[in-house]
Design goal:
Its EC number is 2.3.2.27. The protein is mainly α and about 400 residues long. It has 24 helices and 3 strands.
Amino acid sequence: MDGIEVPKYFLCPISLQIMKDPVTATTGITYDRESIEQWLLTCKNTSCPVTQQPLPPESDLTPNHTLRRLIQSWCTENASLGVDRIPTPKPSLDKSHFFKLIKQLQQPGFNIKALQELDFLAAKNERNRKFMVETGVPKALLSFIVNCFEEISVQGLAEALRVLVFIRIPLAEAKIFLQEYNDQIIKSLIWVLGCEFKPQVMVKSHAVLALKTMIQAASSGLLERLEPPFFEMITGVLKQTTTVSQQGMNAALHALLIACPWGRNRLMMVESGAVSALIELELGSPEKRTTELILGILFHLCCCADGRAEFLSHKGGLAVVTKRIMKVSPTADDRAVFILSLISKFVAANSVLEEMVEVGTVTKLCMMLQVDSTAPYLKEKAMGILRSHTDEWRKFPCIDKTFHKVY
């Protein structure tokens, strides 16, 4: 199409491309349907891009058939010059179509076909995903997953989980589902993590993402009733990093972090081997957000004696936490210093204090005191750690010189 002059009124004001499905907004301006629908769905303060007049998200969009036929005729006339003909757009789907698919999802002979169509439509555009949420597709898919768990069938699970990730389960709907089904969906998703799939990474990543949303929506009562298999399976995900994507890994960590405030959960995490798995994961130098989540969980686990014991039994625990200070983010600094504070307060054995010298913990804490950007409360926390064991650490010549600079 190089060198061909396209009539300006054939171009969408948003995409600046030839319109395939021109529709006219209430402001009188014509846009390509996909572009204006995306605009209305994603912009918080919606207004007409051309006139700046208010344009509600539910605004009527009238098909401009005359303009579409003109565009198609022009494309046909210029076909010899490399212009592709614009096909006549199919009628837009309405909510009734998704209600129909939900009914089919509940029928054994039609559910797989319905899932495949939902998968296709969810990937197509934001408008379809919006209609799916409004018609209750997330709840229908969660029910389908629970049924798969109860019948021990994996058929259709990959499609169901992929659609859930596409449309993002609304927290309000997740809460309602949990009230109706109690913890069955959590047990179902944990079961999915133990199944074998092709492709493995994609399905398990989607399962963890859905699980994170359900844990976010769970009541405190439900979180207090989590069982060992939950923590064992999530810890297994942390240990086998090749089985999930980076997004899935962060979702698994987020789910653990949400469950951390309850002492019973922390003990089950420790028993499942979570401390070692977290340290090993951090030793791989993950991305910033992953490090923040890991250190957040480790802080909670170090609040109990068993967690501290597991942390210190790993040769890389103190070293990796020390290394992350002043290297990642203020959030990571906060969690790392508080972990060291717990260790310093409750496990001040000579061997531990010596290790803190060897891995550079004492030096790093002294450095924090000398950096202006360090938050005042963290400086105070670091100073508290240093003061609590000054006599022991002064026995090391290199540390004694460092103390002289600080005090």
